[in-house]
Amino acid sequence: MNLLDFVISPAYAQSAPAAGGGMGMQLLFPIALIAIMYFLMIRPQMKRQKEHRAMLEKLAKGDEVITNGGLAGTITEIGESFITVQVADNVQVRVQKGAIANVLPKGTLKSA
């Protein structure tokens, strides 16, 4: 026995742990991570897309809308993929249906 052994305890190699339940835990973590990602990111995005599609289907002539670019106006004509929006007297703009961000309550543009 060495004098240094009294001050610093000797280190011994540990035996390898048994490889029984480690594989199940390794598979459980990625599955749980995917489930969390689905509920926090993918599912809410799909819900928003569904609501936006339903809003676009309900658009009618005379609705007041705001586009993604910030233009506010009244729908004067609805096509299959384009909508004509009147933004001022004798000023009409054609935009894609998907560019409609929001439908405003009736009378909002007149009060603004």
Key descriptive features of the protein:
rod-shaped; alpha+beta; SH3 type barrels; 3 helices; 26% strand; five-stranded antiparallel beta sheet
Account of the 3D structure:
- This protein has 112 residues and is α+β, with helices and mostly antiparallel strands.
- It folds into two domains: 24-58; 60-112, SH3 type barrels (Roll).
- The chain has helices at 4-7, 22-57, 108-111; strands at residues 64-67, 72-78, 82-88, 91-96, 100-104.
- Strands 4-3-2-1-5 form a five-stranded antiparallel sheet.
- The radius of gyration is 32 Å and the shape is rod-shaped.
- It is found in: Cell membrane.
- This is Sec translocon accessory complex subunit YajC.
- Belongs to the YajC family.
- It comes from Marilutibacter aestuarii.
Task: Write a short abstract of this structure.
With 112 residues, the protein is an alpha+beta fold.
